[in-house]
Amino acid sequence: MIRIDSLTVTRGERPVLDNLSLAFGEGGITALIGPNGAGKSTLLHAIAGLLPAGRGRVEVEGCDMARTAPAERARRVALLMQNDQVTARLTVEDLVSFGRWSWHRGRPGPRDREMVAQALAQFELEALARRQIDTLSGGQRQRAFVAMAWAQETPWLLLDEPLAALDPRHVRDLMERLHAMSRPGAKGARSIVIVMHDLGATARYADRIIAMKDGRIVKSGPRALAMTGGVLSALFDTGLKVVRVEDADTVVPA
Ligand SMILES: Nc1ncnc2c1ncn2[C@@H]1O[C@H](COP(=O)(O)OP(=O)(O)OP(=O)(O)O)[C@@H](O)[C@H]1O
Which residues form the ABC transporter domain (predicted)? Predict the structure, then answer.
């Protein structure tokens, strides 16, 4: 369970998260949606415990994240930040191995090697394992970062716009994979919170949405109920509607 109580985060003069309260349970994909500057990334950072303790409280499975040591936090949530970059010369395998740091602290064991191998397989990176990160395409690099977060083996996976550099096939492949691994009861199931701008993918794959605007929650709940044309149109200040095409929902201009 993630529980957020009266959370206010101020940058400069104004609150970017404004007295926000919210709770949601394990399992499935929770999509954070909303216009640029709504506060989605800030909320993800707050859940990961990366903001200084301020007004309000964020708990992940009963743990007050702003007051928990980094290594402890890193066993509860893995955060993939937006536009994560590496400047060092690293291979894909090296990068994915970083996901295991909180477990081995510099002395990788068999479990660490097994999880890195699984991560490379899960995200179709085996053929790229020895390539330097800075020689990859944007989409390949993005997959390598998601694999690193996955290898951290946390119950919660927080992903900030992981679809940004992906072509349609890789959007579908990644979302299918995340969807499968977030099913309650799946082997090693993860609960996934994901910032998404792709409303079509949100309509198709999210189980739950949290719609944010101006640092507040406009609507949250099961996707099928909360993600309506009315909510989306008000959220993005443009006419949008949810329609069913073949077996899945998608979003089109109203
Ligand atoms: N370090 C900072 N200093 C000042 N303002 C900041 C800082 N970080 C974020 N903000 C402001 O906080 C607000 C929320 O930013 P945030 O990145 O959380 O939004 P977002 O919903 O993730 O946006 P986007 O969809 O564009 O990524 C924005 O107005 C942003 O300019």
Answer: 2-239
* Domains parsed from the chain with CATH numbers: 2-76+154-253 (3.40.50.300), 88-153 (no CATH)
Instruction: Confirm or reject: Cβ of 10 under 6 Å from ligand 1.
Output: no
Nearest to 103 by CA among 73, 146, 78, 71: 71
Helix (H, G, I), strand (E, B) or coil at 191: strand
Closest CA to 178 of 18, 50, 27, 24: 27
> Average pLDDT of 76-89?
80
pTM score: 0.92
* 17 Cα–ligand 1 center, Å: 10
Q: What is the radius of gyration, based on Cα positions, of the chain?
A: 18
Indicate the helix (H) or strand (E) that contains 209: strand 208-213
Q: Report the nearest-CA residue for atom 28 of ligand 1.
A: 37
| CA–CA separation, 254 and 240 (whole Å) | 4
Distance 1 CA to ligand 1 centre (A): 25
For 17-39, what is the mean pLDDT?
95
CA 158/CA 220 separation, integer angstroms: 17
User: Which pLDDT belongs to residue 11?
Assistant: 85
Would you say the CB of residue 38 lies under 6 angstroms from ligand 1? yes
